[in-house]
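Before a colleague's protein record goes any further, I have to sign it off. Would you go through it and say whether the fold makes sense for this chain? Take the sequence as given and treat only the tokens as open to question. The record follows directly below this note.
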Amino acid sequence: MKDKFLQIFRKIYHLKDKIAFFPTIISIAGALFAYLMMFAENKGISKYLVDFLPGLVINNIETARVILSSFIGGLISIMVFSFSMVMILLNQASSNFSPRLLPGLISNRKHQIILGIYLATILYCIFILVFIEPTGSKYQVPGFSVLLSIVFMVCSLGAFIYFIHSISQEIQIEFIMNRIGTKAKKKLEKLLELEENEEFEFSDSSNWKSFKVKETNYFQDVSLNILKKVALDNDCKLHVISKKGSLCFKDEILFKTEKDLDEKTIEKIYKAFDFSNEEFIEDNYLIAFKHLKEIALKAMSPGINDPGTASYAIDYLHELFKLRIQKQENDFIFHENNCIILLDIITFKDLIYKVMASLRNYTKHDVIIVKKLLQFLKDLKNYTSDKEKLQIIDTEIENLLKDAKSSISNNYDYDKLSEI
């Protein structure tokens, strides 16, 4: 029962990143509230309020209809305008920065809630308008419900003003990079806290039982709660071979188990893995390195030619690498000081090479950007005493200087770089 609950929770967790998830929930709440108000009107809530607070109740049928009709038409116009702006933002981010940024922008919770407020108010007004119907020779006017529609409309206008403020920030690349960097930094800091004062020891898994990928797809995340429960229930260690964020081809080894497990348990382990083309930093901090690198590359492309943006992206990469260099080369899960789950990750050597190889190629002609990269690499050496990692950084510095020398013809500029 608990396993099913965890699986349902994971599905809902991923649904929340869809642009229609929160609007659907909030709009359903608006429709249900309209029915609740109809029930209250049938019980005479408006008549009761007329006796005590007559100024709060609208008694005129035509006034009520005009108000509700105006609200419906106005809100539909506001909603169309608002989410035309969202589409413009997505298009600009895709063309100027990187298409990989789109999932993070689409999953913006604030914009989803604003859309939900619009839809809930529209549905509420429609249902209350339909509720105005003749009873005998007279019309029943839901005066208090109409008053609430005015309150909801004011809230919608407030949400619209906030939306304009929010979209004006979201469209700025500095804001986008700050959001990416902040999320990844929090994720890395949390992982470093888990590793603090922990000694990593894990059995050799070369002879363990192997299980392969069923279909070719990108491996984005895995439910550690499910894996931990399986490991503890079966007194068995698990080794996840595939790396988060990588493309897993069919029949590649996905994970290994220390002992033979029944088919039902193995299927439970498979369900813990999340394969998807969508990339979210909350699931994998490495996505931030990829996004920031692509922003810098796009900024330095001949069509954009924006060294300022590239410089900002390198600053955020600098911050993230300062944390990553302190991290161990594997992720692991402990239970009572015993490591029961090992997760292979992209090593520091592979990660910095993938970032620097692309940046070297696109920025080697720009003295200022190359200088910034050299300072960033030099500063990284202050955050580790690991000789292997220090050697990796020295190799990247040498490669960067070689590429810069092939593109910078001015000896004075190159000498300035060599001094660093």
User: Anything to note?
Assistant: The mean pLDDT is 82. The chain has two domains: 2-171, 179-419. The chain has 16 helices and ten strands.
